[in-house]
Write a structure and sequence with these properties.
Shape: elongated
Order of helices and strands: HHEEEHHHHH
Number of domains: 1
Largest sheet: 3 strands, antiparallel
Structural class: mainly alpha
Low-confidence stretches: 4-8
Distance between the termini: 21 Å
């Protein structure tokens, strides 16, 4: 009887070790990726290209356009796509939400879907703002800042809730990890 009890306890402990390793791995991966997102031009340049070329293609249906690195030229108008427009920090926030949540089945699919949805929203936002800019819309600056500061956060949250719903996520980023670790500590003290 005692041998059977030891086997089940060992199995539980092995699961705990796997969970601890998973937490450690996800957090270390996030720290490494944070460096590349914010201190290396890799992700900025990647998302700049993924953003500016589709926007230019769509604008090209209505205007004569040219691209010069991070600028779209429409006649005498220059639309500059700066790093805030590319929204690298929003992609990183979605990555954090995905990596800091335990037990997401198909995590890579969730990350890719999140990124694609944000990219599509961003392309649409820049396209619409570009048309308003070219048309010299009077409230362009107000609308631009409103879309950037308020709507961007709402869109990122909406994308996260949508992917959490689609992938049946039942845990909370960071909180679920800490809850598990505290329960493990509590259990080990008994």
């Amino acid at each position: 009887m005692k041998a059977g009890f030891r086997k089940s306890r060992t199995a539980i402990e092995n699961e705990d070790v796997k969970s601890i390793f998973s937490i450690f791995l996800r957090y270390v991966l996030l720290i490494v990726l944070a460096y590349f997102f914010f201190f290396s031009p890799i992700f900025y340049n990647l998302f700049l290209k993924l953003t500016i070329y589709p926007v230019n293609t769509i604008l090209g249906l209505f205007y004569d356009t040219n691209i010069q690195f991070n600028q779209i030229l429409i006649g005498d108008k220059i639309i500059e796509i700066i790093s805030a427009c590319v929204a690298v920090s929003a992609y990183f926030l979605l990555l954090c939400l995905n990596l800091l949540t335990p037990a997401i089945r198909r995590r890579l699919t969730s990350i890719v879907l999140s990124f694609v949805l944000l990219l599509l929203f961003n392309i649409l936002r820049i396209f619409l703002l570009s048309v308003l800019f070219v048309q010299e819309y009077v409230y362009f600056d107000t609308l631009h800042k409103t879309l950037w500061y308020s709507l961007n956060l709402i869109i990122v949250a909406g994308i996260w809730f949508l992917t959490a719903y689609l992938f049946k996520v039942k845990s909370i980023p960071v909180y679920s990890d800490f809850k598990f670790l505290f329960q493990l500590i509590k259990k080990s003290k008994k």
